Amino acid sequence: MHRIFLLFIVILVGLIGFGSAVTAEAAFSDRAKDMTKVSGVRIGKTDGNVRIVIDAERSVSYKQSVLSNPTRVVLDVQNAWVAPEAKKDIAVDSPLVSRVRVAQFDATTVRVVVETSVEKGGWKIFALDGEKPRIVMDFGAAPAGGKQATPAQEAKKP
């Protein structure tokens, strides 16, 4: 009889734990329906450029900032959540960008951090709306043949 009682308690505790997980998932679903899903990050390299594209399901707003030592461009995508299947840490084989990291910074902000050697003014960030909304981050030479930015190490050489 004592074993049956213990088994009943174990099952009851398991069900209560499962119920709270379902409740947390439902709370996230309710919150996420009004948020933008960041579905992935793509990286392309061409002609002295590195282009980073952050794909979203809806139009996005963002804030950018810069951290130093080493230089990192930080992009906070507002009112968004990052999809579990999205790559979170991407190494980039380029003298301009070495790594891109993506994480859920807080409940409503997805943070993208780009480790770069490009000096201030050597990158451009803009959003594109439309059928496939996204944020584009260009590092290096201007796509339209404008002035080329140089990596920080090269700019300091005599």
Report on this structure.
By secondary structure, the chain is of the alpha+beta class. The chain is built from 2 helices and 10 strands, in the order H-E-E-E-E-E-E-E-E-E-E-H. The chain has helices spanning 2-32, 152-155; strands at 36-46, 49-56, 62-67, 72-78, 80-82, 89-91, 97-106, 109-116, 123-128, 134-140. Strands 5-1-2-10-9 form a 5-stranded mixed β-sheet, with no helix packed on it. Strands 3-4-8-7-6 form a 5-stranded antiparallel β-sheet, with no helix packed on it. Strand 3 (62-67) and strand 4 form a beta hairpin. It is elongated and about 75 Å long. It starts with a helix and ends with a helix. The model is unreliable at 143-158 (pLDDT under 50).
Low-confidence stretches: 143-158
End-to-end gap: 86 Å
User: Radius of gyration, rounded?
Assistant: 22 Å
Major sheet details: 5 strands, mixed
Name the beta content range: 35-45%
Give helix % range.
10-25%
Total strands: the figure is 10
- Number of helical segments? 2
Strand order of the largest sheet: 5-1-2-10-9
Structural class: alpha+beta
User: Helices and strands, in N-to-C order?
Assistant: HEEEEEEEEEEH
Q: Given the C-alpha coordinates, what overall shape results?
A: elongated
Q: Let me know the average pLDDT.
A: 80
